[in-house]
Amino acid sequence: MMSQFFDATSDAILFLNHDFVVTFLNLRAEQILAPRGQILGINLWEAFPEAAVPSSPYWINYHRTMDEGIATRFEAFYGEPLNLWFDIHAMPSDDGIILFFRDITRGRANREALEVKTREVEQQLAEIESLYRTAPIGLALFDLDDYHYVRLNDRQAAFFGLKPEEIVGRTLTEMAPIEGLRELFDQVATGVPVINFPLEGSVVTDPDNYRYWTVSYFPVTGPDGTIQGITAASLEITQQKKAEQALMESEKLAAVGRLAASIAHEINNPLESVTNLLYLARHSTRIEDAQEFILQAETELQRVAHITSQTLRFHKQASSPQEVSGEALMESVRSVFHGKLVNASATVKERHRDAPPVRCFEGEIRQVISNLVGNALDAMPHGGGNLLLRSRKAHDPRTGAAMLVLTVADNGSGIPKEVQEKIFRPFYTTKGIVGTGLGLWISQEIVDRHRGKLSVRSREGKGTVFTIALPYDAVSREAQATSSEANRIDTLKP
């Protein structure tokens, strides 16, 4: 009856007498130990010689239970022919000891595999955490409850001159009181990401240092697909912006140099005429002749005054946008280039259709037209060429909005197709050491700031057409404030 009870249990059971001879084993024990063969009535140490080592856990624990009457429990591996891991309970009895044991080989392998996987996951999490904390871009996570900082890395905290733990728990608007930013987060919270949103300004710990960033915001979804937070990735581009500004300033200085040379050439001829006319008037014997020479000198001086006036208008940059017609923009540039056009024997054709004035920064748009006209002159054939200056009203084909279109076209050498793809890149030039490679890049920047488009069409040996398309409200009120004031941060208060 007792044997049937032992056979029904899931544990393997084995009885040893005081001489460590096996006196009983149940069905489960026979199944587990079957590779060893029949062991009933055989000394345990003879049946399992690998365990008969004084340093083995079997020898130590069985002798302790047998000799001291103390129950023991241990896990141990037994090699050939079993190759199994066992979880063993040794219990003292009047006749010797009773062993309760289980095959835990598979469970132990699963546990070891789980431990390995756990260590791998922990290592990966540690690596991810290290990357997160030391990333060269600012990273932050916000909740949806008033947009509190849940976590952020060191670079993001450095924007405020603080440590991450000093910011966690504070709200977005508390740290960055930017007009419209909360509404932007409301948009992201609906599932619409915002990518490369420009921000600029200074932080409270360094108010004299104006800085620039681009930030991308993404919704964070849970396993069920619901939005649970917002993550932000911020990249500071202050040095890049400063470098771009330095390049633009250098191009402006170069433009001033070219303008000065043009003006010197333009006023030299009439001044020479005035000198000669005054000489003739001084040595004239008839007062009528002297008066005629003086009138001619006065005409030449008026020409100098006109050139000077156009030059000042060309170079002056208003602090606020002005309304100006396409014809006036073209005429001011043509006047400055008059001498070069005459020397190049270029034929200038102008066509200006009635169009409303455009609201823009005159000086900047004139700089663009000047760059295009200068490039056209360089591309024209020696001994003559045709330059077309045109302004007209048109409509944006996508939105239907009215636009002023300015065209500068020439019949010069044209631009190869592979070069057209590169001409708006900074420092790219086909003029060798005499070119800076900045003119068209800056021109495109200026047109972009006016929410317009600068495009080119060209065929080798046929000529080139540059088109400037400007919306009539090219400078928005936000742009009027600082040219990019819409995304300005005056101060980020901690």
UniProtKB/TrEMBL annotation:
The protein's Enzyme Commission number: 2.7.13.3
Reaction catalysis annotation: ATP + protein L-histidine = ADP + protein N-phospho-L-histidine
Domain PAC: 197-249
Enzyme class: transferase
Record GO terms (molecular function): ATP binding; phosphorelay sensor kinase activity
Domain Histidine kinase: 262-474
Keywords recorded for this protein, A-Z: ATP-binding, Kinase, Nucleotide-binding, Phosphoprotein, Transferase, Two-component regulatory system
Pfam families given in the database record: HATPase_c (PF02518), HisKA (PF00512), PAS_4 (PF08448)
InterPro entries given in the database record: HATPase_C_sf, HATPase_dom, His_kinase_dom, HisK_dim/P_dom, HisK_dim/P_sf, PAS, PAS-assoc_C, PAS-like_dom_sf
Domain PAS: 124-172
Superkingdom of the organism of origin: Bacteria
Name under which the protein is recorded: histidine kinase
Record organism: Terriglobus roseus
